[in-house]
Specification:
The structure holds two protein chains of two kinds. Chain A contains 22 helices and five strands. Chain A is α/β, with parallel strands linked by helices. A four-stranded mixed sheet of chain A has the order 2-1-3-4, with helices on both faces. The longest helix of chain A has about 30 residues, at about 200-230. Chain B is an alpha/beta fold. Classes of the chains: A alpha/beta, B alpha/beta. The interface between A and B is large, with 135 and 133 residues.
Chain lengths: ~450, ~400
């Protein structure tokens, strides 16, 4: 029954026919080419799960530090105990010589050393400031940042204790001493992601960035391989009229040759033997091409819509996020995926070369996370680089992602981004169709490597 | 686009216009190919293949300028923040003045919290401070008083800046109040000032002394870029040779290829160490000899893995298709941006199969921190082990794949 229906559709003229035939052609190709199939299925699935897994321990704990205690008084001991008690730190070792400390830092046994000077106790008892020194390996930015805040808070507590004790000794009531020590207190509150959960911060934003890269690569290869293999003309003939039927006999021959691991041999060397050289220019219809391209990218679109659900299911934090926010983010992510497909296709089609398409795709998408303003904030990005950042779709999507999923902003605030992504996707799709039309008219440029 | 147009096809109609397909005359006797011959032939092929040349040499040079670009300001300053002053007293005005003077902050006044939170939603500000009404009254009458600082936890670096900027401003004012009170109570003003912090903490940042963001991230990413471009270009070249049935060679021949390809990346590595890092004033060259030794081991290791990938993918464009996405995950398991002991145990083990895992740390320790070669011996052993492992894989592929040209 289904087969009959498919047959009927394959025979169908018109745009729906072009869509269905193109999707059928692509289904057959993916079934026969495990590498290309894995780019649609296994690799993105594994990537999403891998990134989530990498950050499964959501907070950074137990960073190894060393202590050099030259004082050895009771308060110095307390300091070491406080440091040890801080969950972000672990005191790996007590050191006695600066040389040993330096070696440990250089070997990365420890990322910082807390030095308690010789006259520490004496200074405290004579009410002089008794400074403690923290030497930290600032080359390791993440480690260094966490060590600095943790040691600061430990020493802050210690300092307050010493000060309040001093005031109490002078006869002040303990409650009054605390106020006198710090007349204006500060309540420090982190709005959103209060637990500094790195899975929420990094994993949830890196996953869309990686799906974006993968989707652009698929965009480049799906149309690019037809150009490389000089099959784009035959693909168009098939989606337009259904002849020759590339989903049956001939596709079998083609794929058998490919399975013989000689795609290129078939295109370059063996081309003149087994293949009828196809160098007929075609005057293509834009609407047929549009539907044909939609059919060609149907399976990746379907698959990446599913991976997007997975990504957002992981990223939506425990506390309830409004369903409208999740919907807006999902629409944004699916649009980003589709836009990525078309952008990849555009890069390939403008250069007539799969290789160039992939090079440009990699060049633009791989570092896009660095420009997106998540880890290094947008406002700090140098002015000239901001233009580049603004031109990247990922920047806008991640802004929407963080606003909706983490900051729980009203949907209306992010709607302009959704509209922008929609517009960009539609324009990119038409551009891809126009460029395909141009590619079909220039068979002399097919087959570029 | 014009660069993609190949040389006139009319030269010889039998030869496809694609220059990659021209079979050189030297493809006859693979088994006795010498190291030097293979070395020279590989260099020739690299220069006659625009795709490989672009990936192997040109892309990493462009990246050397492109990647540090967003970080050129290095430190985050003048973060836009809001202040809601409900007290409107002399004390609150002093706090506002100190906060405005902070180089970390760029303050704006807001009338109420709703306005401020909306500004956060639209990314106009990264946080705000609320000074409650009656603050001055409470402080003067010796009661506990406090202000609230709310930072946007969605962006870690911004949040840190907001918290630290306001903390410093308020602490300074608070200390001033304390001193005034102590002096009023008869204490000598210098002692009073000194005793505001019984145990001050002095932080000394080592190596990356300015604590720049680019200086932190770029030296590590440079090694990743080096690996990815060398991997993809090598696999592309070997894959192309496979398509042309030119992949087979002797063991010495493979060593010649590896040497030639690593030579290019070695030069790029020197370009990064000597030019890119210098240009951006990153800490560099602390142990130059060690760094060069590292490159001498790292580049062949990666090139060997590239050869394995080439024989596995067996197609020109496949390496890019499969490997482009892998940079970010490789970076996160390297132990550099995210502490390795935080990773799930299984990942802590398998991450050692990737060259960047020992390489990023080793390079940073040698070149940025100035460790001795003995101090990073583990990294060197790991890289040598990986090289041996990849080379065995290569021999395995070489043995599995027919050596002859019968594919034609």
């Amino acid at each position: 029954m289904r087969l009959n229906k498919q047959k009927r559709l394959s025979g169908q003229k018109g745009l729906i026919g072009a869509f269905v035939r193109s999707a059928g052609y692509e289904r057959r190709f993916l079934a026969k080419n495990p590498w290309d199939l894995s780019m649609v299925l296994w690799i993105p699935l594994a990537t999403v799960l891998l990134i989530w897994w990498i950050f499964s321990q959501i907070q950074i704990t137990d960073l190894p530090i060393g202590v050099m205690d030259k004082d050895r008084g009771p308060i110095a001991n307390t300091t070491v105990r406080y440091l040890e008690a801080n969950p972000n730190l672990t005191v790996r070792q007590l050191y006695h010589s600066p040389a040993a400390v330096e070696a440990a830092l250089l070997q990365r046994d420890i990322y910082a050393v807390v030095i308690i000077p010789e006259d520490f106790s004496r200074n405290i008892s004579s009410s002089k400031p008794a400074p403690i020194v923290l030497q930290v390996n600032a080359q390791y930015g993440t480690h260094s940042g966490i060590i600095q805040t943790s040691v600061q808070s430990v020493i802050g507590t210690l300092s307050a204790g010493v000060e309040i004790q001093r005031l109490v000794k002078q006869g002040m009531a303990p409650s009054q001493a605390a106020i006198a020590y710090s007349p204006i207190g500060i309540q420090r509150i982190s709005l959103f992601n209060a637990a500094t959960d790195y899975q929420q911060f990094l994993a949830s934003t890196v996953i869309p960035a990686l799906l974006h890269i993968l989707a652009m690569v698929i965009g480049a290869t799906t149309i690019g391989r037809e150009l490389r293999d000089k099959q784009i003309g035959r693909w168009y003939d098939f989606i337009e009229s259904g002849h020759p039927d590339l989903t049956s006999i001939e596709a079998n021959i083609k794929n058998d040759i490919e399975n013989d691991k000689t795609i290129a041999a078939s295109t370059s060397a063996a081309n003149n033997k087994t293949f009828i050289t196809d160098n007929k220019p075609r005057k293509a219809s834009i609407s047929v091409l549009l539907f044909g391209l939609l059919g060609k990218y149907f399976w990746p679109t379907l698959a990446y819509s599913l991976w997007s659900i997975l990504a957002l299911w992981l990223a939506a934090p425990q506390q309830a996020v409004a369903i409208s926010s999740i919907m807006a983010t999902y629409v944004g992510l699916v649009l980003l995926m589709m836009l990525s497909f078309w952008l990849g296709a555009i890069f390939t089609l403008t250069s007539f070369s799969l290789r160039m398409g992939l090079s440009s795709t990699g060049f633009i998408s791989a570092p896009s996370y660095a420009f997106a303003g998540v880890t290094f904030p947008y406002i700090a990005i140098s002015d000239s680089a901001k233009h580049w950042s603004d031109a990247l779709p990922l920047t806008h999507y991640l802004k929407l992602h963080i606003a909706q999923l983490q900051m729980q902003a009203p949907v209306a605030i992010s709607l302009p981004i959704v509209y922008g992504l929609t517009l960009a996707t539609v324009i990119a799709m038409f551009l891809a169709a126009l460029l395909s039309k141009r590619a079909l008219a220039h068979p002399e440029r097919w087959g570029a490597r | 686009m014009s660069m993609l147009k190949k040389e006139p096809a009319s030269k010889d109609s039998a030869v496809p216009k694609d220059k990659l397909s021209n079979t050189p005359s030297d493809s006859k006797d693979y088994s006795s190919q010498s190291f030097l011959h293979s070395f020279v032939q590989t260099i020739k092929d690299v220069f006659s293949d625009k795709g490989v040349l672009l990936l192997l040499l040109i892309a990493p040079i462009i990246y050397g300028f492109f990647y540090p670009w967003p970080y050129s300001t290095e430190v985050v300053n003048h973060v836009p923040v809001g202040i809601i002053d409900k007290d409107n007293s002399n004390l609150s005005k002093t706090i506002v003045r100190y906060a405005s003077a902070s180089p970390q902050l760029d303050t704006n006044r807001f009338l109420n919290e709703q306005e401020a939170i909306e500004a956060i939603w639209s990314d106009d500000i990264a946080g705000y401070m609320i000074i409650p009404s009656g603050l001055e009254q409470q402080v003067l009458s010796g009661k506990a008083a406090s202000v609230s600082v709310l930072g946007n936890g969605g962006y870690f670096l911004l949040n840190k800046n907001v918290q630290m900027g306001f903390l410093q401003a308020v602490s300074t004012v608070s200390a001033g109040v304390e001193i005034k009170k102590s002096v009023a109570q008869g204490a000598y003003s210098a002692t009073a000032a000194a005793s505001t912090q019984a145990v001050p903490l002095k932080i000394i940042p080592l190596y990356n002394q300015t604590e720049g963001y680019g200086a932190y991230v770029v030296p590590a990413v440079a090694i990743l870029i080096l690996q990815q471009t060398l991997l993809m270009s090598t696999a592309m070249l070997i894959g192309t040779w496979y398509e042309q049935r030119r992949h087979a060679t002797s063991i010495r021949g493979w060593l010649g290829r590896i040497a030639a390809l690593s030579m290019f990346s070695f030069i790029i590595g020197c370009f990064y160490y000597g030019w890119t890092f210098e240009l951006h004033h990153y800490p560099r060259g602390q142990n130059m000899l060690g760094s060069l030794l590292f490159l001498l081991l790292f580049c062949p290791t990666v090139a060997t893995l590239g050869c394995v990938f080439g024989l596995w993918f067996r197609q020109r464009e496949r390496s890019m298709q499969i490997l482009i996405f892998s940079s970010l995950p490789m970076f996160f398991v390297s132990g550099y941006p995210w502490p390795a002991h935080q990773l799930p145990e299984f990942l802590q083990i398998i991450r050692w199969l990737i060259p960047t895992t020992p390489a990023i740390n080793t390079s940073v320790q040698l070149n940025q921190m100035g460790a001795s070669v003995a101090q990073v011996a583990t990294g060197f052993y790991a890289l040598a082990g990986l090289w041996a492992f990849y080379f065995m894989l290569l021999l395995l592929f070489r043995w599995r794949i027919p050596q002859s040209k019968t594919g034609y």
